[in-house]
Amino acid sequence: MDLRIIALVVVAVFSISASYAAPPKKKLLLVTHTAGFRHEEGIAVGEKTLVEIGSITGSFTLEMCRNADDVKRMLTPDYLNANKFDGVIFNSTTGDLGIPDLKAFLEWIKGGKAFIGMHAATDTYHGNADYLDMIGDEFLTHGAQCTIEPLVQDPKHPATVQWEKGTKIHEEVYIFKHNDRSKVHVLLYLDKNPNDGRPVANQPGDNLLAWCKAYGKGKVFYTAFGHRGDVWTNEAIRRHMLGGIRWALGLAKGDSKPGPVLKP
Questions:
Q1: At what angle do helices 40-57 and 235-248 cross, to 10 degrees?
Q2: pLDDT at 198
Q3: Looking at the domain 24-248, which fold is it?
Q4: Most buried residue, 34, 100, 102, 156, by most Cβ within 10 Å?
Q5: Among the listed residues 253, 252, 171, 249, the one whose alpha carbon sits nearest the alpha carbon of residue 210
Q6: What does the pLDDT look like over 63-108, one tens digit per residue?
Q7: What is the pLDDT of residue 219?
Q8: Domain boundaries, the chain
Q9: Cα separation values, 222 from 56, 182, 185, 214, 249, Å
Q10: 54: how many CB neighbours lie within 10 A of its CB?
Q11: What is the pTM assigned to this prediction?
């Protein structure tokens, strides 16, 4: 056979194979440094769980950012771009993490990256309006750990599409400062105060549990779950977190427009 014909066949086969090849895995930096209270159990089991679901699904790989020195070295746009990260996960980070240039880091997310926050990610950078605007709300307080039955606001979103009605979770339930539905796309919420079961009419507003939002060209997913180790091994939570991560990475489609705002 003419060598030119052989070459054309090889090129054609390669092109077809490439078109059907699986998309490359996304790359995430998992940040677990704390400058305040440390959720040791949730951080340890969370790291193991995230590595596991990333590997099993083939959706993403993880690198670790575990201490103050790691934060200074890794949470800069130069490092993140040079190492081709698609986004970051903040798993129960607390306090002022010491990011060298927080505004530059937030601009990096705005440029089209993913930010995934879990549990105490909202207990991070208190008083910093830029960070709090990015993540969507600020941790205020919590009561005793209790069993809740989260309500699904958006049943079509990847983070909630497999959430079964009646699912109950025993967890340290966060109360947020604003619960402002006009600024985030609500995914899970409670219509009762988690600590006493009274209707929200007796409390200031309803209680959000998980949300997502656009941030410039970037995507933000936050879930309040992750305090307890057994929460991380709960299949409903694993599916919830995986769906939210895939959405933030652009691997799954879902709405992010703010709301809905509840009628008085």
A1: 70
A2: 67
A3: Rossmann fold (3.40.50)
A4: 34
A5: 171
A6: 999 999 999 999 999 999 999 999 999 999 999 999 999 999 999 9
A7: 98
A8: 24-248
A9: 22, 16, 10, 12, 13
A10: 20
A11: 0.89
**Separation CA 60–CA 26 (nearest Å):** 4
Sequence-ordered list of residues with C-beta below 8 angstroms from that of 12, at least 6 positions apart, any chain: none
How far is residue 205 from each of residues 177, 189, 224, 259, 261, measured CA to CA in Å? Answer: 10, 11, 17, 14, 11
pLDDT digits (tens, 9 = 90+) for 29-57: 999 999 999 999 999 999 999 999 999 99
**Token pair in block for residue 77:** 């746009």
Task: Name the token pair of 47.
Answer: 């790291």
Judging by DSSP bridges, how do beta strands 146-148 and 169-171 pair with one another?
Answer: antiparallel
Cβ neighbours, 10 Å, residue 10: 10
What is the secondary structure of 165-233 as a DSSP string?
TT--EEE--EEES---TTTSEEEEEESB-TTT--BGGGSSS-EEEEEEEEETTEEEEEE---SSHHHHT
The helix (run of H) or strand (run of E) holding residue 208 is: strand 207-215
41 pairs with which residues across the strands? Answer: none
Q: What tokens were used for 144? A: 């005793």
Length in residues, the chain: 264
Amino acid letter, residue 96: D
Q: In the numeric block, which tokens belong to residue 72?
A: 């200074």
Q: What is the distance between the alpha carbons of residues 26 and 219, in angstroms, rounded to a whole number?
A: 14
Q: How far does Cα 171 stand from its chain's mean position?
A: 18
